[in-house]
Amino acid sequence: MFDTVAALALLQYGDSAFPAGGFAFSWGVEGLAADGHLPGPDALDQLIADHLTFRWASMDRPLLCRAYSAESLDAIASIDRLAEAMTPSAQLRDGSHRAGRALLGIAVRLGGASSTGYRAYVATDPRLGHLPVVQALALRDAGLDLPAAQLLSGWTLVTGLVSAAVRLGSIGHVEAQQALTAARPVLADLLANDLPDDLLPSSFTPLIDIAVTRGPSRHVRMFAT
Questions:
Q1: What are the C-alpha distances in Å from 219 to residues 32, 90, 142, 165?
Q2: What average pLDDT score do residues 182-192 get?
Q3: Domain spans in the chain, listed from the N-terminal domain onward
Q4: What are the phi and psi torsion angles at 23 (to 5°)?
Q5: Half-sphere exposure of 209 (CA within 13 A, CB side)
Q6: CATH number for region 32-212
């Protein structure tokens, strides 16, 4: 049956106005656009599909699932350190920390019990606070079940990528809606496949990684990643 309360929570936490700082991150869109790798809407659609398939589904999603199901804050911290170890790019690690800690701060201010408890861990260890781990805590605190948390995690990545492309002038607002529409079946297909319990988080998006890593050398930047 349709769960109205859960749907409203999805709308709230998935709203672009939710103050978690996601507008500061392009996750490679800015660098790829600057290097001429986003010539139009089709290229953006492919970028979104690559992000979802080769990074989110194999890296962020399993980390989120492990953290959501963890029974203690110590176990969550171990998963967070795994996220740190499996992210070789310093820029992507920093971006994940910054985005995760911003979301954690909001979740604490909204009264999330798990988020509040975990903030003490994050405050004492700079390796902690990766975005997918914090998403698990924040969305669990918000009353969302694991399938809904996975859906929201994937969808906020999609909307963040599309929003960055619009702000950079790579696409217009109508093309943005077309990109969101094209991304929906990609994410739905990924979510339809269950994750193996022993899946080791990993990613393979070399072009995106290079674009993010080159960020500090660019003279003008709009985004942190």
A1: 15, 19, 40, 19
A2: 98
A3: 32-212
A4: -65, -15
A5: 11
A6: 1.10.4190.10
Joined together, the tokens standing for residue 7 give 């749907």
pLDDT tens digits along 95-117: 999 999 999 999 999 999 999 99
Q: Report how far residue 170's alpha carbon sits from residue 40's, in angstroms, rounded to the nearest whole number.
A: 7
Mean pLDDT of the chain: 92
Q: Which of 100, 99, 89 is nearest to 31 (CA)?
A: 89
Sign of CA dihedral 120, 126, 127, 128: positive
* Amino acid in position 28: G
Sequence-ordered list of residues with C-beta below 8 angstroms from that of 65, at least 6 positions apart, any chain: 136, 146, 150, 195
Q: Name the band, by pLDDT with cuts 50, 70 and 90, for residue 1.
A: low
Q: Given this model, what pLDDT does residue 162 score? A: 96
H helices of the chain, in order, are 4-14, 29-34, 41-51, 61-69, 73-85, 90-109, 113-124, 131-141, 146-167, 173-192, 206-213
Report the SS3 class of residue 200: coil
In whole angstroms, what is the distance from residue 172 CA to residue 175 CA?
Answer: 5
Q: Which of 113, 140, 138, 144 is nearest to 8 (CA)?
A: 144
Q: Do residues 103 and 138 lie in contact, with contact meaning Cβ atoms separated by under 8 Å?
A: yes
Length of the chain: 225
Q: Rounded to the nearest 5°, which phi and psi values hold at 132?
A: -65, -30
